[in-house]
What does this fold into?
Amino acid sequence: MSPEYPGNRPEPPGSETPAPATVLVRGETVRDQSSAGQQTAPTRDTLARSKEKPADKKVSEAKIKLQARLPALDDDADVAVQKEQRVVRDGKADLAFTGTLLASAAPTSASQGHWEEYRVYETNGGKHVFSRVTRSVYAEEQDRCEAEVFEPSPSSVPSQLMRSARELTRSRPVTWSDAAVSFFGYNPLVKALYRKLGDQFDEHIS
It folds into this structure.
């Protein structure tokens, strides 16, 4: 029996690792490219999957109808009508009061599926309510509802803080129009809302 050496020990069946084939062509060495081709295939599949478009978002039929009516709103007929009002607020109690919707504004279109609606109310007690609703036509996206109340009486803490800050700079009482500007700002749609409310939002100069 011939002695076995580590270098001569036979490999178990099926464990051989095939060596890449080498071919001499005009003195140049050319290796077998089959293994390289097998490595590039998964990369192509990955690139193809990365280019796939995500599934379209589901839309709400009710919100699509609201979008189609823009710039008209569902409560346009309630402007200047005294009635029981309810203003929804996220994260806070809704506001319920008897009063009048003074004005509202919405964009003429919402091509991206999102838009804002602005409303200003006056209560029978002389307070003003400012509402901003951010809507989305997509079913999985909830509308965002924000609202604030302006009380002309300095009894409320927010009014006192606003009054003291304004009096230091302007030396005049804070009005509901000042509070509206603080809440809404001055974007083009808000300016359209202000024009419906009167000229008190213009800066008068001489």
